[in-house]
Design goal:
Number of strands: 20
Mean pLDDT: 92
Order of helices and strands: EEEEHEEEEEEEHEEEEEHEEEE
Radius of gyration: 17 Å
Number of helices: 3
Distance between the termini: 39 Å
Largest sheet: 8 strands, antiparallel
Strand content: 35-45%
């Protein structure tokens, strides 16, 4: 039986109205950073372009500075989904209800198109991870959304292409909507294969649906700084 140990690794400091927690989890010999977000209490948003410059934020610190000008404090941030050259999201990107990049229905070419892929979306106090074609059919109009791939877990089942013996090991990031209704962003502390990463979402975090975001460039930020070393075309944030 696998054992899970959770302990706070990045305390945010001071009393917060938010429910946000950032913890380290060890499962099956792998370590993960897990950010848990309760949409009834936490302000989760997606950012791409700075409205003052129309250029991508690219870094957590640029976003932190912008939020500070608005009188807000960045509590947590992490990269969004896979992006294309020119720092443009490769798939659907929705901010404040506006579709800035349309749904991408590609079925070949890299991890993004390892179908089934999907969309992580937020609508008010609700969130979901929905397979791309099902998302299109549902006619959802989310407040924020990012498309990426592959789906790690779909309705409790791991992606059919994943194998326990898979030999592609990378640092990986993903997002799941879990049985308790909370959103969980996860980054592995060391290289893992897709099977191990997906299993962590399903069996440890109890997320029946989860989406892969990106690989080795993935990073996160807190009030104490960040370890980012590559630019991003989309950034998820929790702020107050």
């Amino acid at each position: 039986m696998k054992r899970l140990f959770l302990f706070c690794v990045l305390p945010l400091g001071g009393p917060l109205a938010q429910a946000l927690s950032i913890r380290s989890a060890v499962s099956g010999g792998a370590t993960y950073t897990v950010a848990t977000i309760d949409l009834t209490r936490d302000r989760l948003q997606l950012h791409w372009q700075n409205p003052a410059t129309r250029a991508p934020y690219t870094t957590f610190e640029q976003l932190r500075a912008r939020l500070a000008k608005e009188g807000r404090t960045l509590l947590f941030a992490t990269n969004s989904g896979i992006y294309a050259p020119g720092l443009k999201p490769l798939g659907l990107h929705v901010e404040e209800g506006r579709t800035l990049v349309p749904l991408n229905r590609a079925q070949s070419g890299g991890n993004f198109a390892l179908v089934p892929n999907g969309v992580f979306w937020v609508s008010g106090r609700r969130a979901g991870v929905t397979e791309t074609q099902a998302f299109a059919r549902a006619g959802l109009r989310p407040t924020f959304a990012t498309q990426s791939g592959p789906l790690l877990v779909q309705n409790g089942s791991l992606h059919p292409a994943f194998r326990k013996t898979g030999t592609s090991f990378k640092v990986r990031s993903g997002v799941g909507v879990c049985a308790d209704g909370r959103v969980r962003f996860v980054i592995s502390g060391a290289p893992v294969n897709f099977y191990t990463f997906a299993l962590f979402f399903r069996d440890t975090l109890r997320c029946p649906n989860a989406l892969y975001l990106d690989g080795s460039i993935s990073a996160f930020a807190t009030t104490r700084g960040s370890g980012q070393f590559a630019p991003f075309a989309g950034i998820w944030s929790v702020s107050r």
